[in-house]
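Per your request, structure below.
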């Protein structure tokens, strides 16, 4: 880590920010690390991203998507300096006004924030796809959903390969029903802790965008569902319904088809998150993610109630245990002890 810190200093010394003061910022669930740096002459701040290639990180998807988003008039951080080989980026500092924090301090803004974030998606989805995006297609989505069996089920009561295989065989055709439409860029982690409120800007630029480097080409309902079925905070049902209606109206969608796709994609995402959060505790030693699982489960059960999920509902609820107190404790008790399957 000390060597990496020295490398970061060398990177900054090769820019106009030589001698900048550095402060650690909170990281995310990845291996990326962030610092806020202050220009020694002007005091202006920027954000240093440290994405070590030796730990599997690659900044090139981030820079490509950031430039695409900026070209659409959206507020992705401007790239001030970069060293893609060593995994360092110096980024525009968009501040600390994360949606989740703003709503806590001013609940009256919640509807405004979510409407602005919904409008960003409409603007982005009207733009052409950037070259090279990998499709988030039914086989990939099915494998990701099966993480719930690989990790959540495994940690809760033990592995059941037959249940996973049965689920996968039934779920992929459900996903295939919504895979024929036009694809859009999906950011895949579009939620209140990755969005910043920039009220001094205009229109869709009022929403600062973070954590989009895993973008893929997928269904236009995906990011709206990610926004409204937030694993980290409770979005009021009336706001979720209003945002679906807003997106459908403003983008000329068929409401019945859109809501079915929304529930199917919600099932896929929430299953994936169950697996990811369990893995973060069981394998990576981060037990606090277990505390978020009951909310994810509630989203999942609500999505499964849609008629489009009838082919898989019973097999999901019969195979995966409800995350009650003993199940959650069992997942925490195994923190950091489970190898990769």
């Amino acid at each position: 880590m000390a060597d990496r810190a020295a490398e970061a200093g060398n990177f900054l010394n090769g820019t106009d920010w030589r001698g900048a003061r550095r402060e650690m910022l909170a990281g995310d669930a990845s291996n990326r690390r962030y610092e806020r740096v202050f220009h020694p002459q002007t005091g202006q701040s920027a954000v240093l991203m440290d994405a070590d290639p030796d730990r599997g990180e690659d900044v090139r998807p981030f820079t490509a998507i950031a430039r695409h988003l900026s070209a659409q008039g959206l507020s992705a951080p401007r790239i001030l300096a970069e060293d893609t080989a060593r995994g360092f980026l110096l980024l525009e500092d968009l501040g600390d006004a994360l949606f989740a924090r703003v709503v806590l301090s001013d609940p009256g803004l919640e509807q405004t924030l979510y409407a602005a974030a919904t409008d960003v998606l409409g603007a982005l989805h009207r733009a052409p796809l950037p070259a090279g995006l990998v499709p988030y297609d039914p086989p990939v989505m099915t494998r990701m959903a099966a993480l719930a069996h690989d990790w959540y089920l495994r940690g809760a009561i033990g592995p059941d390969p037959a249940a996973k295989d049965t689920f996968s065989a039934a779920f992929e055709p459900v996903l295939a029903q919504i895979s024929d439409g036009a694809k859009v860029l999906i950011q895949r982690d579009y939620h209140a802790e990755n969005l910043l409120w920039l009220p001094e800007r205009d229109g869709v630029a009022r929403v600062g965008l973070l954590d989009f480097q895993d973008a893929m080409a997928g269904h236009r309902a995906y990011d709206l569902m990610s926004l409204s079925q937030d694993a980290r905070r409770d979005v009021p049902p009336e706001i979720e319904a209003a945002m679906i209606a807003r997106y459908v109206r403003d983008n000329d969608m068929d409401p019945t088809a859109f809501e079915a796709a929304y529930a199917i994609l919600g099932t896929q995402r929430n299953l994936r998150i169950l697996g990811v959060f369990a893995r973060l505790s069981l394998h990576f030693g981060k037990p606090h993610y277990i505390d978020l699982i009951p909310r994810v489960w509630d989203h999942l059960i609500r999505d499964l109630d849609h008629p489009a999920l009838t082919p898989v509902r019973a097999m999901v609820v019969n195979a995966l245990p409800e995350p009650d107190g003993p199940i959650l404790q069992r997942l925490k008790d195994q923190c950091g002890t489970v190898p990769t399957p």
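The domain at 2-92 is CATH 3.30.200.20 (Phosphorylase Kinase; domain 1).

Regards,
D.
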